[in-house]
Amino acid sequence: MTAPLQDTFGRTIRYLRISVTDRCDFRCVYCMAEHMSFLPKRDLLTLEELDRVASAFVDRGVRKLRITGGEPLVRRNVMSLFEGLSRHLEAGTLDELTLTTNGSQLGKYAQALADCGVKRVNVSLDTLDADTFKRITRWGDLARVMEGIEAAQKAGLKVKINMVALKDANQHEILPMLRFCHANGHELTLIETMPLGEIEADRTDQYLPLSTVRRNLEESLTLTDLPDSTGGPARYVRIEETGGRLGFITPLTHNFCESCNRVRLTCTGTLYLCLGQDHAVDLREPLRQSEGNEALNRAIDYGMVIKPKGHDFVIERRQASPAVSRHMSTTGG
Ligand code: SAM
Ligand code: SF4
Hints:
twelve-stranded mixed beta sheet, binds S-adenosylmethionine, binds iron/sulfur cluster
């Protein structure tokens, strides 16, 4: 193994997120504009190249890989990537191979994912109401996602639901969602909207601080803070009434960068060192330069040097433009 990855602030990088496509079969209002222009397919790293980069990171001590997008399960033949990467699980050099998905294709792939050693999936679900679901995702079909979630459970995958808290669109559905999740053995994590990429809607109209959500929940439930960390930015509470766990991802009301252990690879081979900053290194060129990984490792090392201390997201009326111009679907959520 070559040297483990440590940045200039002493943070060790153990977690790589890989966006395997910027395309998606939904158009969630907080994530994408309705008419998006996507990358030409020829610009994408092949699945073999994605495997090579991911494996180089595993060689450097990365213990967790998350496949995301866009919608990762719409990339053609994506299961071959999971199959390939599962060898690191078998070898004991990787602790976890997982994905974030909108659930639309889970009915088709849940069993195959479980067969590749995937143990948990994050499914994004912002509402349990079919009309609201259509309004938020524009193109999605709630029934299909629910079938996907059931298929995942049947295949033995643990399902975590990610719900973006939106001021008008789903604020009143947070409590029903919490009850649904905990009744069905799913964990729930709430996420604040982040100012990433141009969308049609006004983000200040969408933004709902989770501090407000927490206060509202405390009117009817007992929340006990938990010290748990899953290596991610979420903070957790136990809901005493249900016995289940609730996570809060609060990039805007609480900055969690000091413990950041992750970097993100786009489908074109750009390594972003922070979700909320533009610091990046191109890995495609060094990857294609030679069959060996020397140039690739040098580029990754450079990434460690420029990884910024943190993001500085703000959502305020004065600020018309997003914090970074790329969408979440490019960097991978
Ligand atoms: N398509 C997959 C999905 O929806 O789960 C994976 C990619 S999606 C970009 C990953 C996560 O990012 C989703 O949970 C989504 O809700 C969240 N997301 C997208 N845009 C966001 C934004 N501007 N602020 C906060 N979360 C966002
Ligand atoms: Fe697609 Fe996921 Fe973005 Fe929704 S959040 S548009 S499902 S990438």
